[in-house]
Design brief:
Chain lengths: ~260, ~475
């Protein structure tokens, strides 16, 4: 599904100096798998998520990203979305004055159009979204509010999951979706993600804590430190990190 | 990458730039008492009208053009302007819509303004003003049944001179300002509306202004009177051909709302804005003001300003009657080299008067967008309230947004709120929308429309969609 090979990336800092962030990332996510990327703050996890989605601030100096046999590095964010990539944002953006439901309908139909699928009419869309919004445990009143405007942290994250369920991506990337969630919301979000799990879909969960992984059980766990994946393993690795922290790993690799 | 892409989508062509080939009766360029006498005679005006024009003209001669606005333009040569141009076919005056020159009907059809009464906009009565004269007014008979007078200003001068003499210049006197004085001297036509007591106007009224002839100024005058307990909603639209020289449009609009009456006045201004380099375009210097003369009267201005090289206008409300209400909702967009200096004045005189100002400025390309507002609470205005919200959205690094709010409070019971914001269109918002699969162009339009939503909501439904589309067209090609 997703194959990242030797990815090097940098960003221009405030002084317009090149600051390298990723130093040769390799990642292979097979169809149906859930991978977790863990690591201390500032390790480059969120950068990787943003680069996958095509954020223009980052410069890719080396490497490739292949989604279902297609090199997506040269594609625009909307083209990547059309290929089936979805990013649940760490900080979902507010769009004042734009109705949440209208936004979702525009997104769904824009994707359907680029995939040559018939567009959903208002009735079909409404039926679908009413079903999905129940699954994430959101009140229907959020559909008629402006996108994320005045939403609490938890509401924003649920809204991301609602969008994900509506857009039915092949590859969902969740960037710190667990941050700011109470335990109920965390479970709802996890249920949403789990309901999407299928043999033809993959999920990459970027997280700082192991907590979310109790509910979304990963097939593979990677530890990222200073722009490199320094260790990969099964779900037990996440448990180990939760108990011991990241310190022992850093010593082990001499980082 | 993002910026160049943005630039690409903010530029669409002006669609209304064509010229109608039609024979016209046109004055020679230049302004003098003789020109004004000629104009007044041509229109067979009553004596009071000519006297008023001449007084205005003599006063205008003593004035110098205002330069306090945040606008840059070369001095206007008032002697090079043609002050009257009318299609020849108008000479006899069409008795009915069937007699209107087919070329004119065709012109308005191209503009999407149907001058027949079984059209898509069947619920809207239209007065069409072409250069200096009104060429047609629809639904007159139906409106007359309700007692509503809706006709060209020239016609009103013939048929209802007493109403004009009573109200003309009482809201915007000819001494008001340079452009109002000029307009008072040379205005050639416009619309007149009178809603009798207790009548709710059965349909939307609308005037469509079109400048066609070259080197011609358009000076129209609109007067709307809503008598006690009446209600009217009125919309004006405007376009002009693409020309390399600048053309002057200096209009005056006066609204009078008596006790318990309500006037809702909406403008979709789409005069030719000039080209990308700032060549040509309309100079739009307009004085618009309404007076709430009775208790519980209400005047609401909504404007969508996307055209003109220069816009200078401040639709205002004088809140005389106790409990009267004034509103101003504005979207002003400046792209390329356009400049707009616009806003409002809310003058609170009566007790418990209330005003709301919502202004949304969008700047793109090298556009300069200025909000200028005055809220004045006089000592008599006990418990007056004002709420002002003034937001700017910047779509390029080369454009500008400026705000000059002024608040004068002379009564301690007043409540004033002012909120302002300026933001650059968010790269993060665009990225978010695009990650969800929206194309760049759709993302920009979505964000801009969301920004303007509060104002669009105030437009009559028939026009809200058109306004949204107009904004998308005007934006094409200038973010960066």
């Amino acid at each position: 599904m997703l194959k990242i090979t030797n990815l090097h990336a940098s960003i221009l800092d405030e002084k317009q100096k090149i600051k390298p962030i990723l130093h040769g990332i390799n990642l292979h996510v097979k169809p149906g798998e859930v991978h977790a990327i863990m690591g201390p703050n500032g390790s480059g996890k969120s950068t990787l998520a943003n680069i996958l989605a095509g954020h223009a601030d980052y410069h890719i100096s080396q490497g490739e990203i292949v989604l279902e046999n297609k090199d997506i590095l040269s594609l625009s964010p909307e083209e990547r979305a059309a290929e089936g990539l979805f990013l649940a944002f760490q900080y979902p953006v507010e769009i004042p004055g734009v109705n949440n439901m209208y936004f979702l309908k525009a997104a769904v139909n824009s994707l359907r159009k680029s995939r040559n699928l018939p567009l959903l009419d208002a009735m079909d869309f409404l039926t679908l979204i009413k079903q999905k919004i129940k699954e994430v445990g959101m009140d229907e009143k959020f559909l008629n509010r402006a996108v994320n405007e005045g939403f609490s942290g938890g509401e924003k994250k649920r809204n991301e999951i609602l969008q994900m369920l509506m857009l039915e991506p092949k590859l969902a990337v969740l960037d710190e979706t667990d941050s700011g969630l109470d335990i109920d919301a965390l479970q709802r979000v996890a249920e949403g993600v789990n309901s999407l799990r299928a043999p033809h879909r993959s999920v990459v969960v970027v997280t700082h804590y192991q907590r979310l992984l109790n509910y979304i059980v990963p097939d593979v766990v990677h530890v990222m430190v200073k722009g490199k994946i320094i260790k990969s393993g099964g779900k037990a690795l996440a448990q180990e990190l939760e108990e011991k922290g990241y310190g022992w790993l850093l010593e082990q690799v001499g980082a | 990458m993002t910026n160049s892409y943005l630039k690409e989508i903010v530029n669409k062509q002006y669609q209304y730039g064509f010229v109608t080939a039609i024979e016209s009766d046109t004055f020679a360029p230049g302004l003098s008492e003789e020109v004004i006498r000629q104009l007044s005679a041509l229109k067979n005006e009553p004596a009071f009208m000519l006297d008023w024009r001449l007084n205005a003209y003599r006063y205008w001669l003593t004035l110098t053009p205002p330069r306090w606005a945040h606008l840059q333009y070369a001095d206007i040569d008032y002697q090079s302007i043609i002050y009257y141009s009318a299609p020849k076919s108008k000479k006899e005056g069409p008795k009915s819509l069937e007699e209107v020159d087919p070329k004119l009907l065709e012109t308005y059809k191209k503009l999407g303004i149907p001058l027949h009464e079984h059209s898509r906009l069947a619920g809207v009565a239209v007065d069409a003003v072409f250069d200096s004269v009104s060429v047609a007014t629809t639904f007159k008979a139906k409106l007359a049944e309700a007692g509503v007078i809706f006709c060209s200003f020239s016609e009103a001068l013939q048929n209802h001179p007493e109403l004009i003499e009573k109200y003309l210049g009482t809201v915007v006197p000819y001494r008001d300002n340079f452009f109002a004085a000029l307009n008072s001297a040379v205005f050639s036509d416009g619309s007149f509306v009178y809603i009798p007591p207790g009548v709710r106007c059965p349909m939307e009224l609308s005037t469509y202004f079109r400048i066609n002839a070259a080197k011609t100024g358009q000076f129209e005058r609109t007067l709307i009177i809503a008598d006690k307990d009446s209600h009217v909603s009125y919309l004006e639209g405007c376009t002009a051909p693409m020309r390399d020289e600048n053309q002057l449009h200096a209009a005056v609009v006066e609204l009078v709302a008596l006790e318990n009456a309500e006037i809702k006045y909406s403008t979709v201004q789409n005069w030719y804005p000039g080209d990308e380099e700032g060549r040509g375009g309309i100079y739009n210097f307009v004085t618009k003001r309404g007076a709430c003369r009775g208790k519980h009267a209400k005047i609401s201005w909504t404007q969508i300003e996307t055209g003109s090289a220069i816009t200078w206008k401040y639709p205002s409300v004088i809140l005389q009657g106790d409990y009267s209400v004034g509103e101003f909702y504005s979207v002003a967009l400046t792209n390329h080299r356009q400049q707009a200096d616009t806003g409002t004045k809310m003058i609170h005189i009566g007790k418990n008067t209330k005003s709301t100002i919502i202004s949304k400025g969008i700047s793109a390309g090298f556009g300069q967008n200025t909000y200028r507002g005055l809220v004045r609470i006089l000592p008599t205005a006990h418990y007056a309230r004002n709420y002002t919200q003034c937001d700017s959205l910047l779509l390029s690094k080369t454009c500008g947004a400026h705000t000059f709010p002024s608040i004068e409070v002379k009564n301690p019971t007043a409540q004033i709120e002012h909120e302002a914001s300026a933001s650059k269109i968010g790269e993060d918002q665009l990225f978010y929308c695009r990650q969800r699969g929206l194309k760049m162009e759709d993302a920009v339009n979505l964000i801009v429309n969301g920004f303007c939503k509060r104002v669009f909501n105030e437009l009559p439904m028939e026009f809200a969609v058109e306004a949204q589309k107009l904004l998308e067209v005007s934006l094409e090609g200038s973010v960066g």
